[in-house]
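Researcher: I'd like a structural prediction for the single chain below. Treat it as a standalone chain; there are no partners to consider.
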Amino acid sequence: MLNIPLHWLLALLAVVWGQASAEPVTLRFGVLSIAPPARIHANWQPFTHYLSAQLGQAVAIVVPRGFGKMRAAAANNEVDIFYVNSHVFYRLHKEGKATGLAQMQNIAGKVTSRSEIYVRADSGIESVKQLKGKRIAYISPMGAGGYLAPRAWLLENGVDDTREIFTRNLSNSIHQVLLGDVEAGTMCGVNYRLMSRKVDTGELKVIGASEEYPENLVAARASLDPALQKRIRTILIEMDHTPAGRKVLEQMHGMKIRRFLPYDPATITRTEKLLEEAQLNP
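Model: Treating it as a single chain, here is the predicted structure.
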């Protein structure tokens, strides 16, 4: 039996206790979304319940409203992990506030997507070149598929001097085009097809699609314990390996999520390229 001095043992216990208590008892999962908070909670509760069961640690949903609040929450340790689009992640990562854990693979089976530009079928607009100087409905200035990718593509195709309208809502964008409030709208192509099941888009037509942009991802605040980050990453990537995990993922198809794959650092370089093309400050 080892003869360890009592003061050494107490010091060791203090270090272990400090490490164990450094992270919160309840893990806070932030979701940055344009959906109403009640819907966000309903959509993500099966996921957080699964993660909590796998971790043996409570997981609570936090809903910062807007990029500024998510940035502050990540900086002030008010969220531990979070689900954000690739544009928001890029900003947080560049500020040293976020570490990538897992990429979302969408229901089309890809970790990238394209934004589609749509108009009224009877508008007489056949080419994106005709959108120069026109009103275009985007979702949010911090969107990836809802702003960054389509803006970059339009500018690359010589379409500038447009009037940018931010609707903050997928259905609002579709309705504004249908009503003629704007000449065109744009959103993630997968979302457009999902919305077509809820809103009659028969009077619309797609006239173009952007370059591919990285899909949403799960990230952690940079200061979160690396061992805990690794555990969470493994749980997410292996979700589709278990019956319980697959059941949760099936319920997430409406959010265009099929499963989670390992984080790809190329997310940063791809987003940086889009920011340059979109003439937005990287």
